[in-house]
Amino acid sequence: MTSKPFYKELYFQVIVGIVIGVSLGYFFPDLAVKMKPLGDGFIKLIAMIIGPIIFCTVVTGIAGMRDMKELGRVGGKALIYFAVMSIVALIIGLIGGHVIQPGAGFNVELSTLDTSAISKYTESAKEVNVVTFVMGIIPSTFVSAFSSGNVLAILMVSILFGYSLSAIGEKGRPVFQFVESASRVFFHNVHLISKLSSIGAFGAIAYTIGAYGLASLIPLVKMVFGFYLLLIVFVVVVYGAVASVCRFSLFAYLRFIKEELLIILGTGSSSVVLPHLMEKVERMGCPKPVVALVIPSGYSFNLNGTNLYMTMAILFIAQATNTELSFSSQMILILVAMLTSKGAAGVTGAAFVMLTSTLIVLPVVPVAGMVLILGIHRFVGTGLAIVNLIGNGIAAIAVSAWDGVLDKEQMRQTLNTQSKNSAVEYRSETLK
Q1: Helix (H, G, I), strand (E, B) or coil at 40
Q2: Which letter does DSSP use for residue 138 in this model?
Q3: Within a domain: 361
């Protein structure tokens, strides 16, 4: 079997786009800032198609289930898994913050901070509470669930539609076939849009480097590198343990989703690869109903990278402002972060809003300290988005294995085939 030339591979084109974007941002920052519409346009193209894909996938997945008890069982196991992983991520972020001490030695005076830059996030955070969160899941109309872009609202509408379609039996068969056919069309659209990934990555990374500059990271380099070190440890240790229990290689899985990881590296958004991830995890042997339910809901409930960021960032602010945090305050912090990390779903700048709302609820750490990390938020945001994506795919695999419906033979064949293809590509490039 002849492999596709490496320069035609999507991952290679995305790498080239990122390299060119970084170079342009560094040497010609004024021009690079003008490339922002390329990244924004690509993200909007993907966002346009996410709602219909979630709807079609969830509806056909639920309608294809044997009974509704299966839906409740899978959903319950997914929520338990999400809760456990969230707590683990928050605790590791807390431990990492104490070990790395990213804010030690800053000795920042709060009176010198200009909080005007974070006012929009503070206002958004004040609006985030249990009531607004629950009400936000319920759309005003069927169509508004899709126009709002709230994944949880789309998920709720999809579950209700899929349940009703299953309940009416054979009478709903034509609708089921229509939705299934529409799903193929929307996934084909995704593949067409994906051809623009390198352009989107180029535009997004060029703007980031041009606007903020590499030099802007120097004062906060300890926080940035410490955070990425923590992300790597979390992926290798925690996700590695889950992979071991489910009997698959973590690194083979990472190679399998390398294109998606590179797209996030360029765009800074995990939402743009949601359809790709669902498709690939299904190819790994996870049943469509499980994938359809776990991965979209994981985008709101299984944000492990974001949880790591929240606890470490709060400790950074506390250390930088010489704010003492007692053991009990830190335990309360974990409990509060568990709630606020779920309450900002669908909010622009969600991770930053989550962090701000946590500080508002837990006033021991000054909210004004958010100014200190505003400049690096875009850089660390890429890392947490990558970890969130990795975790959501693993969540679907773990829940499938827990429910006894994971096709382990198909998973092994899929990952082995991917590894062999990677080896062939490597040898081909080496020979050249």
Answers
A1: helix
A2: S
A3: yes
Looking at the chain, how many residues does it have? 432
Instruction: Say if 80 falls within a structural domain.
Output: yes
Yes or no: say if 148 and 346 are a contact pair by the CB < 8 Å rule.
yes
Q: List, as own/partner pairs, every contact residues 336-341 make where C-beta atoms lie below 8 angstroms and the sequence separation is at least 24, other chains included.
A: 336/361, 336/362, 337/90, 337/307, 337/310, 337/311, 338/83, 338/86, 338/87, 338/90, 339/130, 340/128, 340/310, 341/86, 341/303, 341/306, 341/307, 341/310
**Domain range enclosing 112:** 6-430
Which residue type, as a one-letter code, is found at position 197? Answer: S
Distances (CA, A) of 122 to 57, 119, 217, 360: 36, 5, 24, 8
Closest residue by Cα to residue 386 from 327, 331, 324, 304 = 304
Q: Is 42 contained in some domain?
A: yes
Tokens standing for 193?
A: 């849009």
How many Cβ atoms are within 10 Å of 421's Cβ, its own excluded?
14
Q: How far apart are CA 407 and CA 400, in angstroms?
A: 9
Instruction: With H, G, I as helix, E, B as strand and everything else as coil, classify residue 159.
Output: helix
What is the count of structural domains for the chain?
A: 1
User: Token pair of 236, please?
Assistant: 């290798």
Helix-, strand-, coil-residue percentages of the chain, each rounded to 5: 80, 0, 20
Do the beta carbons of residue 274 and residue 299 sit within 8 Å?
yes
- Residue 301's CATH number: 1.10.3860.10
Q: How many CB atoms neighbour CB 424 within 10 A?
A: 13
Answer whether residue 1 is part of any domain: no
Residue by residue, pLDDT tens for the chain (432 residues) are 445 676 677 778 878 888 898 889 889 989 988 998 888 888 778 778 878 887 887 788 777 665 667 777 888 899 899 999 999 999 999 999 899 888 777 676 666 555 555 555 555 555 555 566 677 778 888 888 888 767 678 878 888 898 888 888 888 889 988 988 998 888 888 778 878 888 888 887 788 788 767 665 555 677 888 889 999 999 999 999 999 999 999 999 999 999 889 888 877 777 778 888 989 999 999 998 889 888 888 877 788 988 898 888 888 888 888 888 888 888 888 887 776 666 444 444 566 667 776 776 666 777 777 766 765 666 777 888 899 999 999 999 999 999 999 999 999 999 888 755 554 443 444 334
CA atoms of 53 and 56, how far apart (whole Å): 5
Token duo for residue 358: 């946590």
User: Token pair for residue 28?
Assistant: 């010609």
Cβ–Cβ under 8 Å, residues 389 and 295: no
| CA neighbours closer than 13 Å in the CB half-sphere of residue 139 | 20
